[in-house]
Write a structure and sequence with these properties.
heterodimer, A: 240 residues, mainly alpha, 10 helices, globular, B: 418 residues, alpha+beta, three-stranded antiparallel sheet, 16 strands
Chain lengths: 240, 418
Amino acid sequence: MAMGGPDEWCMLVIGLALQDVRMGVWMVARAPRPAAEAADPQARIDAQHVEFSRTDPDRFGAIFDEYFATIHGYVARRLGADVADDLAAETFVTAFRKRAQFDASRGTVRAWLYGIATKELSRHRRGEIRLLQALARSVPAPSYEGPEDDLVADRVTAQAWASRLARAIAELSPGDRDVLLLVALGGLRHDEVSAALGIPYGTVGSRLNRVRQKLRAELGTGPTDFADNGSHGAGADQDG
Amino acid sequence: MARGQIRMDELELVRKLFAEPVPPAPEVVEDAYARMMSGGEGGWARRSRNGAIVIVAAASLAAAAITAVALASRVSRTSPPPPGHQVTNKPALRPLPSAKDVLLTAAKHVPPAPTTGRYWRLRTMTFTIRAGGTKAHPYNLLQAVSHDEWYPVDPSQRYWDIGQVLGAQPQTAVDVRAWRAAGAPRTWRVAPGKAPASIVSSAPSPRTYSSTSSSKNPAAPMWNVATASTFGQLQQLPSTVASLRAFLEQAAKANPIPGDAVQQLTLFDECVFVLNDPVSAQVKRAAFEILAELPGTRVVAKVTDPLGHSFYELVHAERSGTVIFVDSRHGRVTGLHYDEPASQRPWPYTLLWLSCKKGFVSPVAVRTGQAHSYLRNSKCKLAIPVLYGRPYDGLLDVMTYWVSSGFTNASPPVPHSR
């Protein structure tokens, strides 16, 4: 292949440099990044999607794809599917609008989204209470007696528990209820609940412990059953 | 332990109390997405729901912001998604649409964009996936390189390319586990020898600045459409479907590489090229419509790329092995993927980057054994072998993403800009 004048040689050199970089070939060994980066690949990927989306809004689509059904499911369990359609959508509208404010150092994207959803949920507290009360009424009263065979007795016992539990959850303070349901339904870790609700890490554990004591009391189990400090069990409690 | 059991039962009871959620209906998902992105389309200012003006600039992916890209999400077909992979390629909520639907939708959504400016700015990301790790703990390694190219409209100005190697990482969460088991190395030897290219690192490299004078070199700026090499010519491309089709068919015939069936350009290629050149929105719409009517095009997947872009992957019968990514929601072709089946490893091709007489530039793949005769027969002024033979054994996949393209009046962020 014949080469032309100096311009072409210059172009060849530039072209070589360009292409080597373009194809990812010239890789210069550099100092390694901190090991912590690989600690939670999903969280890191999420955070970078949000980071990118600040300048390229499309990138937020990945966050939507990853979490819309999750958030929708969480809201649907608390408020019903109809409300969830709107509220989950609103959560993502808000998240998208505030994506520049997301701070990865303060928590995961997942926690951030649950936090936004929780704020949206707070506007529907009455609806949630009504739903829980309806749930409590829809099953036999706890004092119901009479089944003659064990199977029915078990079922009724379970129904009675459900009724008591629904009533107990309805009677929780909104903050306590949020902590309980973020852990139980959302599956959030304590640090994520802390980030989602903007409360100290230790408060998450103490609130959860308090809620559990209330629920257990309501369900008729002795308080000694959970008189520990909640530092173990179910892998969820890590009081600070 | 009894306490732990009680605690678990308790949370379990709460979970049981609330009915298992039913997945949202597809139209709910679609509506929610549209609602979310309603402030994010195109380059217009839109009024958000609370009344604030949201300025959505054309995407500006600052190189500084991408020094640590998580590149773990693209699922390569050469390595099927492992169980537990959560990042992308979720089960489709709906069956895949036809290629025609995707392309016509894209045609409808081509955003209006400025047709003039001081520079045409093109940002791309190239991802390569390599086999890495040890025999006991094999894993895929994903590397990324970003490019921010500034093509001056005024030929007296310089062309700039700001490149950055963004570092390599294990590809998926499963690869991360294997990588940890293999000792979590931060550098990888991907080829024998002492060349810088033989080692890749997890750390991003400094940005590189390359420049050339466009007036001195007719090959820069360099456009993809074979018969148009200046901004003026591109602006004058016919914008009706019939006339553009006739023009592009002619352009495909004017192939700078005659007699090479592999490299014989097709109408499909030309349409794809046009869609990322500085042409008007009308021309892009027409190009999508031509593609939509082209037989042999089909949708193979809906995926999300490593940067979170959702798009459809389309292939054309005459270009097996080349996949184009169509973001139908935003009327864009966002990338190209040269898909080599795993059975053809080691890489049987030599990748060449060509700069040809007519301003045609394209990465092309030529079988290694044919490279020399290919070069002899081509009319290219320059042909630069980039990947040549065995040294890059283990390269599984190469993907190029067009992050964004458009005219701008800004200046390239280069040191000591001239």
